[in-house]
Amino acid sequence: MYHNFNFRDVLSSSYRAAWQIEDVLPDGASLDFGRRFLPENLARVDGIAFLSGREKKVLNQIRGHEYLSIFGLVEEFILPFVLDHARPQLDGDDHRVRALLNFAAEEAKHIHLFKEFHRRFSAGFGTPCAVIGPPQAVAAEVLRHDPLAVAITILHIEWMTQSHYLDSVRDDGELDPLFVSLLKHHWMEEAQHAKLDTLMVEALADGRDEAGIASAIDEYLEIGMFLDDGLKAQAGLNLDAFEAATGRRLTAEERAELEPRQHQALRWTYLGSGMAHPKFTATLAAISPAARDRIAAVAPAFC
Ligand SMILES: [Fe+2]
Ligand SMILES: [Fe+2]
After folding, report:
1. Which of 159, 171, 269, 303 could disulfide-link to 277, CB 3.0 to 4.6 Å?
2. Ligand nearest to the CA of 109
């Protein structure tokens, strides 16, 4: 066995790691717009030669806004999926039922927290930043797929949040402390979710033959392409917000350079960093080495 995850241990770790929204976002706390919000590893704005230091900071903050918004969006489909997964076996293993319901409750709390942060961002930033959506339409499109494909997508997303915090946020002392606190608290609970996702993927893959796994991987890639179309649109919306916030009109050449680079930065943030996560690929390998190899072949395009 490549892991030792079980519902009982995850449930007790979840209770130990749990927090309240007020712990993360106390009344009156505000974001520091003198600082960056996202680590450069995800934002990828420093290398853009034609932007000033102030403009890079503004674009970084718009990426921070997008990060909260995209998470709010994906958690809108994680919540009903987890409830649906729990529902048929509510009279089964007690630890399983409680761990999955707790998972769903935490995800509802995260959606709430991201909305609160979003309100404070909007109040402090002053310029509206548009976001793809609406979340309900995105959720409906994702959830129409094979449950195993959706579970693999969720596994990808939740391991991805682990690498975002551990690899690039935790040790970056220049970021806004409130934003870091948000990502830290999210990481703490998502660490338990990723273990539950692993158990969900294994349960849904159980008894499937190689063709059944391969078709779920097809659908996982289909969901990925759907999300990627959204990320491309979001990269454009971010630049519209950048122009509105800074008053700088990008030339056609600047936009032609910046937009694909930012699209790739969003791809890395939400797709590549999940596809390449070693715990994610370990679960794929456990259900099908061929599935792991297929994802390894496409992942570099999203990094
Ligand atoms: Fe979450
Ligand atoms: Fe989660």
Report:
1. 159
2. 1
Q: Tokens standing for 204? A: 């849904």
Query: 188 CA to middle of ligand 1, Å?
Result: 10
The Cβ of residue 32 has, within 10 Å, a number of other Cβ atoms equal to 13
Residue type, 114: F
* CA 91 – CA 128 distance, rounded (Å): 47
Q: How far apart are CA 64 and CA 66, in angstroms?
A: 5
302 within 8 A of 280, measured Cβ to Cβ = no
CA distance 126 to 158: 31
Phi and psi torsions of 36, nearest 5°: -80, 155
111 alpha carbon, closest ligand:
1
Hey, what are 73's tokens?
């969006």
Q: What is the pTM of this model?
A: 0.97
Dihedrals phi, psi of 228, to nearest 5 degrees: -65, -35
How many angstroms does the Cα of residue 248 sit away from the middle of ligand 2?
A: 37
**Residue 125 CB coordination number (10 Å):** 18
